[in-house]
Amino acid sequence: MNQTKYIFVTGGVTSSLGKGIIAASLAKLLQARGYRTTIQKFDPYLNVDPGTLNPYEHGECYVTDDGAETDLDLGHYERFLNVPTSQANNVTTGRIYLSVIEKERRGEFLGKTVQVVPHITNEIKDRMQLLGKSGDYDIVITEIGGTVGDIESLPYIESVRQLVWDMGENNAIVIHLTLVPYLAAAGELKTKPTQHSVKTLMESGIKADILVCRTEHEISNEIRNKLALFCNVKREAVIQSIDASTIYEVPNLMLEEGLDIVALKKLDLPKKVAPDLKSWNTFLKRIKNPKHTVNIGLIGKYVEMQDCYKSILEAFIHAGATNETKVNVISIHSEHIHEENIAEKFKDLDGVLVAPGFGERGIEGKIAAVRYVRENNIPFFGICLGMQMSVIEYSRNLLGLSDANSTEMNPETVDPVVNLMESQKTVTEKGGTMRLGAWQCEIKPNTLAYKIYGQTTISERHRHRYEFNNEYLTALEDAGLKASGVNPDTGLVEIVEIENHPFFIGVQYHPEYKSTVVKPHPLFVSFIAAAVQAKKK
Ligand code: GLN
User: Would the CB of 309 count as within 6 Å of ligand 1?
Assistant: First the structure.
């Protein structure tokens, strides 16, 4: 295929309709038909990336191999497609403006007035075509964040209009995702919000080629006909997206509705083969028919909002499928854990994961959690801050360093067992300056880590500023907390574990970012296997 084809996905009526899942599901189907497909997301906010956002604002910050801090939808793209994304797959308005303003300062527009149209829109258009021009993809799906009609979405919508005009209708199409609400009092599904949102799109010069309609009830033929007529799309291009029990069901639902076929037809592309979803459906069958159930405590401070730990929750689903186990994740707020109530709170847990995080809030609860599971032989898995908490707990309770802490929480601590990395000491700016992205780790033989990974060199993704303080390494190892994985170049400790425990491992990196449907992460798989064993006992 010589020309890359483009599919733009816009959203109307409300946010949270699941544009990311629809984009990922369509991409999955196109990939399963043999098309090299990628997805990118354009977000209309002014932060240069979501790395500086509190998770309550925007959910989890997802990290790519190349160290981009990105929107959590990129996690869905990777989990569905099993193809890594990169910096180029997520662009915000902040990044667009930053780059245009930097060009202006360098004099690249010398003599000209710099304006939203054409300078911002040109920058958007260039970035929208970046992955397509790499030659690596047949089809690029672009998700436009936000809702049509928002002030901040306008430059994106205008850029899409221009690109469709430039490329021609068979090379670029628009899918509009809307809501068809059910009015219980009237007992009817309503099409008016969709009509209005399609009209708003048309006012910007964009005609939707395909409508994907989110709904809680089956959309009748009559309503499909009405939507087609009033929204000016072909009848076959009205696609129902009914609520599903799991997001992993959506590719099958879209296949039944023929979303991939309509898109290919509009793009003038052959259907090629029928999509091969064999391994996908094996996975689905496993999550729907579990043989075991385990309760996993997720100890964190953002537990009120599911999106804050998105990749961890999804990694549990992948690992559960491998173990034919339903993983009940029980979120426990770390601020509410004390020595007095912990036995009661943890009594039904078969495993405990202490979550990543920043800042002091809730850390004493996390430390208490590590102590409890260590002493009571409950499988433990610590990620990033969770791993650091296990180092503090071990130092306090087994080395007797009662003041042991991370300098992030207490800069004055007598025993900084976790401290700021050397490379961070000169860093003053907050955006994009953590130790980010993929780094190598050497695993020592005869360790739990080696048993889990089955190899000595691994690469995992990071997002942190603080680190195990190697001055305490010997003392901690002598006391039983082993550094089983270390970065070969810097000596930074990446994995800690203890022997004589059913399963106790902490990792400085974020394995959850690399777990996909096709390749569940081995750490999550082994942790769930350990929880299944723990429950049997
Ligand atoms: N706050 C810790 C650090 O910066 C842990 C970060 C995390 O959990 N992602 O090192």
Answer: no
State the Cα–Cα distance between residues 163 and 173, nearest whole angstrom: 10
For residues 159 and 128, the answer to whether their CB atoms sit within 8 Å is: yes
Q: Please, are residues 442 and 431 in contact by the beta-carbon 8 Å criterion?
A: no
Closest ligand 1 atom to Cα of 466: 10
pLDDT per residue, tens digit, the chain (537 aa), is 568 999 999 999 888 899 999 999 999 999 999 999 999 999 999 999 999 998 888 899 999 999 999 999 999 999 999 999 999 999 999 999 999 999 999 999 999 999 999 999 999 999 999 999 999 999 999 999 999 999 999 999 999 999 999 999 899 999 999 999 999 999 999 999 999 999 999 999 999 999 999 999 999 999 999 999 999 999 999 999 999 999 999 999 999 999 999 999 999 999 999 999 999 999 999 999 999 999 999 999 988 888 999 999 999 999 999 999 999 999 999 999 998 999 999 999 999 999 999 999 999 999 999 999 999 999 999 999 999 999 999 999 999 999 999 999 999 999 999 999 999 999 999 999 999 999 999 999 999 999 999 999 999 999 999 999 999 999 999 999 999 999 999 999 999 999 999 999 999 999 999 999 999 999 999 999 999 999 998
Index of the ligand 1 atom closest to the CA of residue 383? 8
Mutate to test the pocket of ligand 1, among 385, 410, 425, 509 (most ligand atoms within 8 A of CB): 385
Containing 124, the helix (H) or strand (E) segment is: helix 121-133
Is 78 among the residues known to form the active site?
Answer: no
Question: Can you give the pTM of this predicted structure?
Answer: 0.96
**Among 384, 462, 497, 501, the one annotated catalytic:** 384
Please work out, in degrees rounded to the nearest 5, the angle formed at the alpha carbon of residue 53 by the alpha carbons of 303 and 319.
45
Report the distance separating Cα 317 and Cα 516, nearest Å. Answer: 10
